[in-house]
């Protein structure tokens, strides 16, 4: 199930080609993306994100305490 969630989050971030870097930070996934216009906030929330914060090419996806696990699963998909 976590792998499905990771795949949905990765797709909502614009796909593997759009993700430059991803790292977990307690309850968030800090993601650097190539093109922030490809990030689909509604899809991130549908995938289970509690919130999304954006600042330029950096997108923080609030996912709760599973951030470490999800970051690892997303890195496996990249």
Overview of the structural elements:
With 78 residues, this protein is an alpha+beta fold. It has one domain (2-77): Glucose permease domain IIB (Gyrase A, domain 2), CATH 3.30.1360.60. The protein is 36% helix and 29% strand. It contains three helices and four strands. The protein has a four-stranded antiparallel sheet with strand order 1-2-4-3. β3 and β4 (58-62) form a beta hairpin. α1 (2-12) crosses α3 (67-77). The radius of gyration is 11 Å and the shape is globular. The chain starts with a helix and ends with a helix. This is PTS system N-acetylglucosamine-specific IIB component (Glc family). The active site is at 25 (phosphocysteine intermediate).
Oligomer: single chain
The fourth-level CATH homologous superfamily is Glucose permease domain IIB
**Helix run count:** 3
Shape: globular
Q: How would you classify the helix and strand content by structural class?
A: alpha+beta
| Number of self-contained structural domains | 1
Distance between the termini: 18 Å
Return the CATH class. Answer: Alpha Beta
Strand order of the largest sheet: 1-2-4-3
Task: Give the strand tally.
Answer: 4
CATH fold title: Gyrase A, domain 2
Q: How many strands, what sense, and barrel or not for the largest sheet? A: 4 strands, antiparallel
Mean pLDDT: 93
Instruction: Spell out the helices and strands N to C.
Output: HEEHEEH
